[in-house]
Design brief:
29% strand, binds S-adenosylmethionine, three-stranded antiparallel sheet
Amino acid sequence: MSVNYEKRYQELKETFRLEYQSPPSLLHFLEKDVWTHTGLNPESEIKILELGCGAGSLFHEKYKRPKVVSLDLAPTALEYAREHSNQDNIIYMQGQWGGDFPYFPENEFDFILDAHCLHCLIEKEDRVKALKQAYEVLKPGGWMGVEHMVSHSGMEFDAPYQLFNNTLYYAGEPQKFIPHSIEIEEEIKAAGFEIRYLRVFETLKIIPVSGRATPLRSDPDLLRLLCIKTEG
Ligand SMILES: C[S@@+](CC[C@H](N)C(=O)[O-])C[C@H]1O[C@@H](n2cnc3c(N)ncnc32)[C@H](O)[C@@H]1O
């Protein structure tokens, strides 16, 4: 069981609060880490798969050359994204990472970005399946970038939020997977990727609860990871 994202987007739409704001940390990740460490050229026609785009693509406006597929499971978010897109280098597609994933040819993408989606997959088997799907569609020599919430000893949540078994619950409903960074490292390696960059930022936080804009010291830390599908 996990969050019903489609229902959330429908509620936002009905109350005129559905909008897209580029997540600043992902933009920072692209600009400060991804292009520098991977050598991928965002001014060229590289093929990118963005996972969990929500109501818009991170590659909107700034990136006109890459061929981007932006995937999400929520039709309402995708409908909004399409209505507000004027770029034909971005295709919005519906599908469930770790579940009913769309067909892509093997070895298709130069870069896959986990756009804050992997930590929405709470069940171990879904995460294993998701990483396998990503591995299959990545080109040999291609890169995947992950930003994930990770735990630390000073993490705290106010009721009705509660952390149990690396999962954050809201009033008993599972919301996000927040493990130690070592666990993510192990999952990525087990899927066959080689990790080339991994950093945990104690000062860059991801806010795991809704309705709060200011990060707290007790929020999860931010993990940034870049890994490669080796050429065999
Ligand atoms: C935390 S939001 C991130 C949205 C946006 N990328 C951002 O960073 O602001 C997670 C997004 O992933 C989508 N999502 C959750 N699980 C998914 C899955 N298994 N496959 C595809 N999309 C999923 C949700 O609908 C939601 O839009």
